[in-house]
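ARCHIVE CARD
Drawer: 12
Card no.: 0347
Subject: one protein chain, sequence and derived structure
Cross-reference: see card 0346
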Amino acid sequence: MSDIAEDTWQFAGACDAPGRIRGRCVGHRVTIEAPPELVWDFVADFEGWTSWNPFYSATSGTAEEGGALRFTAHLVGMKPQRCKGRVLSVRQDELFEYEVRKMAGLIQALRFVELEELSPTRCRVANGEIMGGPAGRLVSRMVGEKVTQGLMDMNAALKAVSERKWRGRSA
């Protein structure tokens, strides 16, 4: 099994974090051979996501709590989805989390990227989405696998760009 296929999940619940919306959660974890601070620089630079992230394009906004985000998400086999979000939580080198609400709250999504330090030069990234709200279960059935694929693609790209930068540092 490749590192990119390392760990995907799909389950009901709130992805084990208090305060998150309830709903269907999909996600992917990957181990990156680079320090969490270096990986965080890519995660926290939301506007820079378009330079490396195949899942998102036309990003604007900053990773600051309460801040507004705008982006376009690309799900396999679907037209690009324009979204507006609000940053919920930012913990440097650990967590970036934001929410998206559509159709007057019938569709709610909470997106998160969590970093866990495994060693000073290695970390694990968990990248997930909780689909909630009154239509969350239906949305999950319709696009859950496509969102999971997008998260896997995003993690593969984050791994590649982070490890390339780490390998290319000056000695």
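Annotation on reverse: Confidence is low (pLDDT under 50) at residues 1-5. The chain has one domain: 7-16+25-167.
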